[in-house]
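Retro notes, item 3 of 5
We never archived the inputs for the fructose -6-phosphate complex last cycle. Fixing that now. Sequence and ligand:
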Amino acid sequence: EKGGFKHFMAKEIAEQPVVMADALRHYTGSSAAPALNLPEGLDFTGIDRVVMVACGTASYATHVAKYWFEQIAGLPAEIDVASEFRYREPVLSEKSMAIFVSQSGETADTLAALRYVKSKVAKVVSVVNVPTSSIARESDLALPILAGTEIGVASTKAFTCQLTVLALMALKAAADRGRLSPADLSARLESLRAMPGLLNAALASSDSIAQIANELARASDILFLGRGPMYPMALEGALKLKEISYIHAEGYASGELKHGPIALIDEKVPVIVMAPMDALFDKTVSNMQEVMARHGKVLLLSDAKGLAEAGEGTWAQLALPAVEPVWAPILYAVPAQLLAYHTAIAKGTDVDQPRNLAKSVTVE
Ligand code: F6R
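Structure as it came back at the time:
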């Protein structure tokens, strides 16, 4: 049932181009001209804020989506982890839309947060992989991510499908708010449709990632850096790595490095810099150079142009396809997952059943 792969995690990483294309087909049709086809009830007219709540990897998907709702739709977006959200007395209004993201749809903290907001907001929407789950049933509207059953404890294909559905929701919000002309919407949808092909290309770097991972496996601390929507990807890269390889890892917003974490840098600490060619590339590179000046071992993830511009003096490099910057987080999920996977393999840990973790956390 692992389809020729050694682990469910490897199979699920490899499935991403196909399941993402399935989700896109479901929500944008299969004709050459894509069109948004989201459930009727998903209407952002009159909504003045989205509040997104989730746990773990699903919460990093909402963190990426916060950038999308704000940048594409001009809609204020708030995020929180479920265990904090429901105890902090969040200010909610009848003009807010609450969005709960959960692969299993059974995460106790997320479900409790959903019950807490009900009747306090305009609409409760869930983004789930299991359409029959408690979270789906208790929300006003449930959008399936269509990733198929995810068995590996570390979430991979569910994450990219969560991002896909959240991207489409941000586009719908932009259209509803008059922020996106039909032509611009089509262009955005077409660039999303190109993503499964790019994920495929990223999967082809699995062998080079395995080589790098042999070295990473010797580290006791690893940092991930990114800016903008690559910041939550740095957090996700670090979470994936620590949960299956048991190596201590942290993700930071690149610009925060100088406010403390730079004290950790020495020649033993690998620093993984996620730097697609976006508007913040130069700033990310200058943060990377601060790391190199302190002898940190930098692994630079970028496209060929970015590596040519900034690769000098780095310890290692990984070339990814050039990508429409707004969707770069979807692409960079793949190397983040493969780095964690191969590092865990090099360490000999149980990647599908990491210690102390359960696939679905149904207790608070
Ligand atoms: C990380 C991971 C967890 C889950 C989290 C939420 O790889 O799998 O962090 O993302 O427990 O689970 P769901 O999405 O089922 O609510």
